[in-house]
Structures are given as C-alpha cells and as structure tokens.
Amino acid sequence: MVDGDTYDARVSIYRDLLIDERFRLGRVNSPEIFGVRRDGPEYTGGIAARDYVVARFHEHEGRMILCTSRRGRWRRWVAEVFVGDSTTRLSDELLREQHAVRWFRAPRREPRTGRLLGLIEELRVMGPVRNDVVARLEHRHA
C-alpha cells in the first residue's frame, strides 16, 4: 500500500500471466502519507485510511475485482475495486468510513489551443464513439 487510495498489486490477467501494476481508487482522495509532516493531521488520516484498506484486503486474502480502462495523470491505473465478494466499491467504503473525500479529476484542455473544455466539449474531443452520450447530455441541459 502506498496510501489509502493508491496501491501496488500483482494481477492475474490470464492463466499463468501475472503483472505488477500501480492502481489508484477512482472517485476518491484520501489524505497523503508522503510529503507531509508526520505530526500533522493529514499524515494520521492517511495512515488510518491505509490501515483500513489493508485490513479489508487481508479479510479476503487479497482477492479483489478490479474494473479499469484508463491510466491517470501519474500513469497509475484508475480503478473501481470490489474486495472479496462485496458488491460495494472500496472507494464508497472509504467515503462512508470518512477516510476519504470525493475526488473529481481536473478539467481537460482543448489540444490545439489549451482552452479549458466543458463536459460536453470534452466528450466531443474524445471522438465519435461518445456522440450518443453528448447528444443525451445536450438534450438534458437544453
């Protein structure tokens, strides 16, 4: 465990094929452990969040389901995690136990001009696959 929302895991992606990767829990931000004063409230909150996640992993011998499709800013896989046979996301558990706060990623910029994009514009830049989503959002916000 790196901290409450970031961890390293060995993942079985096919029978005998294991890979080591770093993951970040999606949608939450827990207090930091590294780069902060050890006598401060952020450090103690980070330790509590990390200990909670470690305990949850140990309860189920490290078995979890990872759902991910993209890497974040620091090249970590952004994942939704279900520990053991739970139907509740680990990130939601951290929120419920007050070990984390909701996290929203930074807004994207238009590649050519650097102008900040709104949600609908951002989806358009992502390409034609998302046109159905864009149409629904435009209809909802009209």
Please tell me the overall pLDDT.
79
User: Number of DSSP strands?
Assistant: 6
How many alpha or pi helices? 4
Largest sheet entry? 4 strands, mixed
> N- to C-terminal separation?
45 Å
Principal-axis shape: globular
Helix content: 25-40%
Q: What's the helix-strand series?
A: EEEHEEHEHH
**Structural class assignment:** alpha+beta
In total, the number of domains comes to 2
**Percentage of residues in DSSP E strands:** 25-35%
Order of strands side by side in the largest beta sheet?
Answer: 1-2-5-4
Radius of gyration: 18 Å
Low-confidence stretches: 119-123, 125-134
Describe the structure.
- With about 140 residues, this protein is of the alpha+beta class.
- It folds into two domains: about 100 residues, no CATH class; about 35 residues, no CATH class.
- The chain is built from four helices and six strands, in the order βββαββαβαα.
- The strands form two sheets. A four-stranded mixed β-sheet has the order 1-2-5-4, with no helix packed on it.
- Strand 4 and strand 5 form a beta hairpin.
- The longest helix is centred in the middle third of the chain and has 19 residues.
- The chain is globular, with a radius of gyration of 18 Å.
